[in-house]
Amino acid sequence: MSAAMLPPFWVLIPAAGVGSRMRADRPKQYLELAGKTILEHSLACFLEHPQLRGLVVSLAGDDPYWPTLACAGDPRIERAAGGRERADSVLGGLQRLTELGAEERDWVLVHDAARPNLARDDLDRLLAELAGDPVGGLLAVPARDTLKRAGADGRVRETVDRAPIWQAYTPQMFRLGQLYRALSDALVAGVAVTDEASAIEWAGLAPRLIEGRADNLKVTRPEDLDWVRRHWARKD
Ligand code: CTP
Ligand code: MG
After folding, report:
1. What is the pLDDT along the chain (236 residues), one digit of tens a residue?
2. Could you give the 3-state DSSP secondary structure of residue 41?
3. Is this prediction's pTM over 0.90?
4. For a substitution probing ligand 1, which of 12, 86, 89, 193 has the most ligand atoms within 8 Å of its CB?
5. Which one is the CATH code of 3-235: 3.40.50.170, 3.90.550.10, 1.10.10.10, 3.50.20.20?
6. Which of 46, 66, 50 is nearest to 171 (CA)?
7. Relative to the CA of 15, which ligand 1 atom is closest?
8. What share of the chain is helix, strand, coil (3-state, %, to 5)?
């Protein structure tokens, strides 16, 4: 499908986390990867897309790194205030998108700042598959390993059927108004939401799973960054 046939969309990048599991000297989205920061790589796939309407990055209030990046001067990118939890950062970003002219029914793609290896094919497939969907959905990867349920004693209680289990990736694509209401209602209710889809599920809707590439991984621990560096070195 040609890019012009794909629906227009807005992008929101929550980038206000501290990266505690990475144990680096700065938040992981600002670590270097192939001559740029991880965050700049995470933005790149969207900035090259003709259907992009605008992009918001949610940042911590005291973030000294963002202003040093070349993309901080890009007129298509706006900042929003991040919050204590990821869901707070996403809500702040959705508010900012509304100020920028995004409307209730517009598609918003939320993508982790620490996911630098999103392929254009995956992005386009997500957009194409969900363009006419009443709910929206997310890129996801079917579980590959044999799964075990543990008991409190740390021993295997049972082997779990892997077939219906997926790992939730990003981008996650929902309508602005629906996502905003689901997230804010979930927060008011005290429900812990770790991704956008779980807020939509909590609201009683069923997001669609769109199979994506497993190498669109989130950099969480030091070995993940080592893996992406090696993966890119092999690709070149
Ligand atoms: N995030 C955010 N605001 C928060 C927490 C997280 O915008 N209050 C963002 C992160 O910057 C990241 C994405 O949400 O882009 C996914 O979160 P995660 O991988 O958990 O990142 P961190 O919270 O930074 O890492 P950790 O949990 O290891 O501290
Ligand atoms: Mg976190």
Report:
1. 688 899 999 999 999 999 999 999 999 999 999 999 999 999 999 999 999 999 999 999 999 999 999 999 999 999 999 999 999 999 999 999 999 999 999 999 999 999 999 999 999 999 999 999 999 999 999 999 999 999 999 999 999 999 999 999 999 999 999 999 999 999 999 999 999 999 999 999 999 999 999 999 999 999 999 999 999 998 76
2. helix
3. yes
4. 86
5. 3.90.550.10
6. 46
7. 11
8. 35, 25, 40
